[in-house]
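request received
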Amino acid sequence: MGAIMIESIFPSDGDYQLARKLLDAAALRQNAIAANIANAETPGYHRVDVSSSFAAQLKATVENGGGLKTADSLQPSISEDTQARAVRPDGNNVEIEHELLAMNRNAVEYEYLTDVVSYNIKQLKMAIAGTVSS
Amino acid sequence: MNLISGTDITADALSAQKTRLDIVAQNIANAQTTRTPSGGPYQRQIVSFETELLKQTGGSSLETVRVSGITPDPTPGQQVYNPQHPDAGPDGMVTMPNVNLAYEMVDLITASRAYEANLSFAKDARTLAQKTLEIGK
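response:
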């Protein structure tokens, strides 16, 4: 009950909800990259990533004007990266440089998204307190 | 809840690479060993990796890595003529271990680079976890 009451004061749409969804995806991508780097030398391993259907569904939801808050079913998931090239004879298609770059990129994205979420929460705090919090 | 995501996988990978480094050290150390408890010269050991499914509560499955086995290299060792050697055969030939230092050095560098890559991931994951804790501050 309390959670629902609190939830209703947050913006039901817009960048706050979008950042939340993207933050979920970034956290999951971090896991996928960990698995890829760990298995960089495992024969037959195929690299995984956040499935591209998540981005497509998110885009469709935003474009249709559907509220992201109610779209609880829209969750990122991990699947095999079908775009990756097979680079080695042992069937492993992990490129370590690619993974490290993806990791750095994901970190920047994650930091930006946490900033967006923080900004929204701060604004809310300001509205409640009526003063600018330090 | 796992705040620092991916650390289980990275920990497994670090330990797997460490095992590989240990085996490289063992191979280099025994590059001239002509007598072993099982008889005959030392045989070069090879580490192989395999994936292991990591259970996730989130529904998506991730694969971690583990050492699947440490197997001896069956390649025959080099024969060296050295009749004074205690392990020389009646013809004066000594079978040396099948350790090739060039292979071992390449393995050593690959393993340490892989270790570093995993370690840089661990650092990155820590930064992200810190950022998560700063939400709303």
